Amino acid sequence: MSRKSKKRSVRDVLVALLMAISPLFGALVLTGASAATASAASLAEVTGFGSNPGNLRMYVYKPDSAPARPAVLVAVHYCTGTGPTFYNNTEFARLADQHGFIVIYPDANVSGQCFDVSSPQALRHDGGSDPMSIAQMVRYTVQNMNADADRVYVTGASSGAMTTNVLLGAYPDVFKAGAAFMGVPFGCFATTDGSGWNTACATGQISKTPQEWGDLVRNAYPGYTGPRPRMQLWHGTEDDALRYPNFGEEIKQWTNVLGVSQTPVFTDSPEADWTRTRYGSTGAQAPVEAISIQGAGHSLPATGMAARAIAFFGLDGSGGATTGPLRAIGADKCLDVPGFSQTNGVQTQIWDCHGGTNQTWTRTPAKQLTVYGGTKCLDAAGTTPGAKVVLWDCNGGAQQQWNLNPNGTITSAQSGLCLDVTGAATTNGTTVGLWNCSGTPNQQWRHA
């Protein structure tokens, strides 16, 4: 069946639900003048960005304030929308003017204006269809606009939120984090009949264990061992298009993928009728953040929500955390906590990189290097050459503050000594400690 005919099936069902409420997106998110009038910069269409298996259109907004190496945000529209409409009727371009990042607006460019989140091709890394086209847009932007490949994020509403889930699942090598407004878990919408529509998923009738949801993500890119992107989830309790139970299933999926507990470590209500929970860390860039909006229907993001997504990404200049492996250049192995231990005092080592939670380190604005979602810190057990570098409860002390230097070294803020792979060895299990800085490869590291 052709891609066009598959999209018509989605239109017949989902567009019927969304047509009456899609104008709410624009009404809710505008704050006066259109984002198009924010600066002299304007939305531009880009062609020839790749093989484009999904036959999408690509629009880019690069603000005048963009630095030499800007971050990238992909903003994906809802069914019945377009890239230019999402540009005009959401706050992302205005926020780009304020903070200097590039925004890519994919355009579904088919009848119904929905994105493919259901076909086997869409749910596989570089398998084809719309997600592969969007990944090609990012790669084009990195290569041709000098964008920062280490700061690429994605957000979307409805069909765009489903696409956000798919992109984070199938392209963890491309995206660092996502924010999904009214979506469903990766793989929930999967179909084999070519229809592009999954009623059971849309109505919240599909429930899986966290492991099952997580396996769907991991199986999308077999062999991938790198870091997984963080996820922010939004949903209204009265959503009648993509029902509210999907919100809980998304939480199950992404906490499992990121290796953190399903029990929130932080709960608050930042706005009336909001319940915000964080998983794996209490900070603003937690591995998973979920915001439930009491009484809201299929009408997100509302005013101010885009700014909270930008803060979650760290694009607002608040010193957003960077999360990923710490790779020892000389050994080509990763800084590792032996046996996934969480015992204070266990000495760190190097090991083959596998993307596990015991190798996923977050550099925080407080100069900490945290692991296990922020519950433990890299800690210098002394201030003289040969001191061990260990795991310890985070306490904000100077022995837990680290400088990541332009030459690739990591120095203890307390002693000035370098993070060192003992004896310049390259074998699994070699311990890591502190030593006088020498600039040798066993003291050079790359984060994320």
Task: Write a concise synopsis of the structure shown.
The chain is α+β, with helices and mostly antiparallel strands and 448 residues long. It has ten helices and 23 strands.
Note down, in words, how this protein is organized.
There is one protein chain. The chain has 448 residues and is an alpha+beta fold. The protein folds into 2 domains: 3-319, 3-Layer(aba) Sandwich (Rossmann fold); 323-447, Trefoil (Acidic Fibroblast Growth Factor, subunit A). The chain contains 10 helices and 23 strands. A 10-stranded mixed β-sheet has the order 1-2-4-3-5-6-7-10-9-8, with helices on both faces. A 5-stranded antiparallel β-sheet has the order 11-15-16-17-18, with no helix packed on it. Strands 14-13-12-23 form a 4-stranded antiparallel β-sheet, with no helix packed on it. A hairpin with a 4-residue loop joins strand 16 and strand 17. Helix 2 packs parallel to helix 3 (83-89) and helix 8 packs across helix 9. The longest helix has 16 residues, at 3-18. It is globular, with a radius of gyration of 22 Å. It starts with a helix and ends with a strand.
Secondary-structure blueprint:
Elements: H1 3-18, H2 22-29, E1 43-46, E2 57-61, E3 72-76, H3 83-89, H4 92-99, E4 102-107, H5 129-144, E5 152-157, H6 159-170, E6 177-181, H7 199-202, H8 210-218, E7 230-236, H9 245-257, E8 266-268, E9 274-279, E10 288-293, H10 305-313, E11 322-324, E12 326-328, E13 333-336, E14 349-351, E15 361-363, E16 369-371, E17 376-380, E18 389-393, E19 402-404, E20 410-412, E21 418-421, E22 432-435, E23 445-447
Parallel strand pairs: 3-4, 3-5, 5-6, 6-7, 7-10
Antiparallel strand pairs: 1-2, 2-4, 8-9, 9-10, 11-15, 12-13, 12-23, 13-14, 15-16, 16-17, 17-18, 19-20, 21-22
